[in-house]
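User: Continuing from earlier, I have the next pair ready.

Assistant: Great, send them over.

User: Here they are, in order.

Assistant: Folding the first of the pair now:
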Amino acid sequence: MSSDFSPPTDNNSGVAAAVIVSSLVVVGKIAVIYLLCARKARKPIVKELQAREVDAPTMERFFQEIAKEKPVRFTAQQLCSFTANYSTTLGSGGFGVVYKGQFLNGVKIAVKVLNRSPDRQAGEQFMAEVGTIGRTYHMNLVRLYGFCHDQFMSALVYEYLENGSLDKYLFSEAREIEWEKLHHIAVGTAKGIAYLHEECVQRIIHYDIKPGNVLLDANFFPKVADFGLAKLCNRDNTHLTVSGYRGTPGYSAPEFLLKNHPITHKCDVYSFGMLLFEIVGRRRNAKIGSNESMDWFPKHVWEEYEKGDLAAMTVACGIEEKDREKAERMSMVALWCVQDSPDSRPLMSAVVKMLEGGVEVMPPPKPFHYLYSVGINVLQQANETGTSSSYATSKETNSIWYKETTPIMAKYEIQVASS
């Protein structure tokens, strides 16, 4: 019985094998070409994804930094949580109470809860604080993280500074800070005020510079605080119209005592000069004696300077020999800062230069004429001593306050003087 099925012959088998091999080669080539194309097409995608992986945290940090530059508006519930229901009080005053707290990430804060008042001035001070320090950032200015304002409360949220305000160290018998550190505090405070006056887009006048408004961190690094009286002003406007007395008696410039007298940023310079006197003396400027006569330290400094005896004055203040040159320099800078005429007071950037010791401080004229006479021209009397109110007086001096010197020239001047 025959069958229809018959095994392939050798020729048929060879042809079939050749066809299969050819097909596999073609398929292999197509696969290789596909893989090469896919790899080339995938490279930019992989690079883009890798770039995204690298850039995502960077971009996130960038956006966080941008957000930090503006104060955040917190709710009353958040502040209650941050302060553990206001359990720790840091201080209090006529403005309200300051509480210690911390954010959820552990960053410590100080929450100033302001006394609510229908008085328009209270609202203006709140807006001044947020509107000025809230738009600035400098290492010598206290950081405002945010605020809270609703129908029940107004509060300001600041960075927490461990060592509190400068006044408790200046006027303490313990003298916990060495004088060299006090000098650094003076320079840092001057830099903060110089930033407000000369580096902000709009000049900021603080109006209340005093030791109580200089806060110190854990390393006694100074930061200017309390901008409740501060005011923004256009740089082109050299004078401001200010209604009412501003600042703290004993630190405020004499122009506040005169009616219709223009107020400039130089009022902060005067206040800073008063702060310098208190650093040198480590005492309050004014003391009332047993016979009710006032012992006023700034006047005493001028009298000692006029006699050429500042060195003895620094000894009487308990300043060690290694610090006396800086103390004498600081005393001369303070005398410049408290000149009666605002134009005769130095710029804060010049104050920084003089305190740091890179320039020669020029002899200051006699201040405090306003203590002996009252009148609309009282602030111009400082110029009668021979000091010009212009900032440039000669080729030898870059200003009326200091003269640029180099170590070589200083050495030459000493040799000439001794010969």
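And the other member of the pair:
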Amino acid sequence: MSSDAPVPVPRTAVPLGIADPVEQARAELKAALAAIEEKANVPKRLGIAVDDGVTKARAFRRRNPVAASVAVVVGAVAIGAAVWGVVRLYTR
């Protein structure tokens, strides 16, 4: 069973079957620029990483609410201790 539907090509890939060298060069340049944009767009990559982390944290909270609560308390204590230590070092 075959399908005549076109296969979607990612932005950073060059489609196959381009016979014209000028069109091939344009497609390669477009793919290269898209790849550079994907790699260099740090705010977008950071946003995606934060969204993934939030999704994982919510899933962890649903699976194990007690451990999630303990993790939040331990994190808050660690941040408080770090701030206290920095202030103490600064005021000496």
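Worth noting for the second one:
The chain has a mean pLDDT of 88. Helices lie at 21-40, 42-63, 65-91.
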